[in-house]
Amino acid sequence: MTDKIKIENIEEQEPVKKSALRVIIHSFFVVPFLIAIFAVIVFLMVKVLTVEPNTAQDYLEHVKIGGTTKRWQGAFELSKILSNPKMVPKDERFVQEMISTFEYSVHERNPLIRSYLALAMGRTGDERYISTLINALQDKDYSIVASCAHSLGLIRSSDGFVALQNMTDHEDAQVRLQSIISLGNYRKIEAEDIFVSALADQEVNIRWDAAVALAKIKNNRGSMILLDLLDRNYLDSFPNIDPLEQDQAMLVAIQVIPNIIDAEFESMLRNLRDNDRSMKVREAARRALNK
């Protein structure tokens, strides 16, 4: 009888011990762990809400004093951020720092730094960079020359127009291409003869952009080339052009076609509007027909 009572007492104590153990674990492990997680979440939220994004000046400092990798990445980010007009510093000090950094970058081993700085200057649209970009057209690295030509077309100053005209017969195809594209941005009849000559360039990209540039000034000498650019079968013959690049080439052509549209173009645009695989191309064709 006594043994039975002892067994019953032990059985009654076991749940009490288990319950106490749960309380200890919960108090000393679970609750502190949850509090720590909550504290980390609060800290991260505060940090995200209070952190300030890098400015153009910050990225310029990365180019000036950063390591090799950080310098070209800083120049790249600078070229991106300055494409937003709201992020472009207007003060003379920043402009002079940009120019001096670009000029000093001639000593850089990595040409990307100088190329991205050239693009950054062009994307500001600020004519204070014109003389610097024109001087850099004599750079020995043609990738940098091409970037400067591209930037001159973004700023579109009269001095830049004259300088670009002298680059359209450059020995490097990429420099010629960027010069034709940039001259096309001016939409000036004075470059008409240059565009017509470029229709016979050995590089197909240059012929395409010369036709686009001519259409911008309402000259239909490049009509056959533009019709080719609207033909998927023709574009498929260039295996190095992926579907997205095909779409982009077609969109560029469609954009300028209303300047020189005729019956043949209308027929092609209707076909694209109704049947093309890309919704962007179909919509662009619809808008062109409405014009």
Question: Notable features of this structure?
Answer:
73% helix, 291 residues, mainly alpha, 16 helices, single chain
Oligomer: single chain
Which regions have little confidence, pLDDT < 50, spanning 5+ residues?
4-12, 46-51
End-to-end CA span? 106 Å
Instruction: Indicate the percent of residues in helices.
Output: over 70%
Structural class by sheet pairing and helices:
mainly alpha
Largest sheet: none
Please work out how many helical segments DSSP would assign. Answer: 16
- Written as H for each helix and E for each strand, in order along the chain, the element string is HHHHHHHHHHHHHHHH
Q: Determine the mean pLDDT.
A: 88
Give the gist of this structure:
The chain is an all-alpha fold and 291 residues long. The chain is built from 16 helices and no strands.
Give a structural overview.
It contains 16 helices and no strands. The protein is 73% helix and 0% strand. It is globular and about 65 Å long. With 291 residues, it is mainly α. It has a domain at 222-291.
Describe the protein's topology.
Elements: H1 2-50, H2 56-65, H3 68-81, H4 92-104, H5 111-124, H6 130-135, H7 142-155, H8 158-165, H9 173-186, H10 192-198, H11 204-216, H12 223-229, H13 232-236, H14 243-256, H15 263-275, H16 279-290
Helix pairs in contact: 2-3, 2-4, 3-5, 5-7, 7-9, 9-11, 10-11, 11-12, 14-16, 15-16
